[in-house]
Design a protein that fits this description.
- By secondary structure, the chain is an alpha/beta fold.
- Helices cover 25% and strands 20% of the residues.
- It has a nine-stranded mixed sheet, sandwiched between helices. A two-stranded antiparallel sheet has the order 5-13.
């Protein structure tokens, strides 16, 4: 599986993501980094010193994304640096199976009734449980008629795609950063009618700050600068409070503890 992480000005949050994810994923992750100044750059140097993986400082964003994908790997998953793994990684089913799925969402679960980004209640779609032989059970639904997060297959927060589906879009579309990429993908979704998830979220997005101006996303009030200063002082975010966290939405502002 191709594992691609987007990170800007958040080395401390990136460290939490890398420590939370399965080791085999973290070791093969391709991290595309952008930093605003030398303070953040120095923060990322500590990341590179402490973690395995491929770390690339962004030059041409589209080229960097395409180069991160090995076409031989059948699956591709994207993460942003404010994602955190809260449950173990399950076995990913065959996305070409019946029903044909556009993606497996690691952030959704079947009982979410709130969409943080839109700040509204969301309706649970008609969900069908599928239990193939030799793999974990998963849940699936038609996304075209689904509400809010359930009707949004092209997220870059922990959605797993077939590489053969996503790579042509990455090559054809025009974009310059993760938010413009996700916007383009949302306008040109993979033409498979179903999404899927598991019975609990594998990741949650912790939107405690915003580091870009392409999209005016909702966020909390813990600044990236404050966290980077703590990171450079030798602090890190505690992982234990996130393990088994029972989230009610794909995005939740979760308080941080430091060690």
């Amino acid at each position: 599986m191709n594992v691609i992480i987007f990170s800007k000005d958040r080395p401390m949050q990136l460290d939490l993501l890398l420590r939370s994810m399965p080791q085999e994923m973290a070791h093969k992750a391709w991290v595309i980094i952008r930093c605003s100044d030398t303070g953040y750059y120095n923060g990322y140097l500590r990341i590179i010193d402490e973690h395995e993986g491929m770390f690339v400082f962004q030059s041409d964003f589209k080229r960097d994304v395409i180069e991160a994908i090995n076409p031989v790997d059948g699956l591709t998953v994207f993460f942003t640096d404010d994602d955190v793994f809260i449950n173990p990684m399950p076995t990913i089913p065959n996305l070409e199976a019946d029903p044909p799925m556009s993606c497996i969402s690691l952030r959704l679960h079947p009982n979410m009734d709130y969409c943080y980004t839109m700040d509204k209640k969301q309706k649970r779609p008609d969900i069908v449980s599928v239990c193939p032989a030799n793999t974990d059970c998963f849940l699936t639904w038609e996304w075209g008629s689904a509400d809010a997060d359930y009707g949004y297959p092209m997220s870059l927060d922990g959605h797993v795609f077939r590489t053969a589906d996503i790579l042509p879009l990455l090559q054809q579309l025009g974009y310059h950063d993760p938010n413009s990429l996700e916007g383009q993908l949302a306008r040109h979704p993979i033409k498979r009618p179903y999404m899927a998830c598991f019975d609990r979220s594998i990741i949650v997005n912790n939107p405690i700050n915003r580091v870009q101006n392409t999209a005016r996303n909702r966020h909390g009030d813990i600044s990236a600068r404050e966290l980077n200063d703590l990171w450079l002082s030798g602090k890190r975010i505690k992982l234990d409070p996130f393990k088994g966290y029972e989230n009610k939405a794909c995005h939740e502002e979760i308080p941080l503890e430091f060690e």
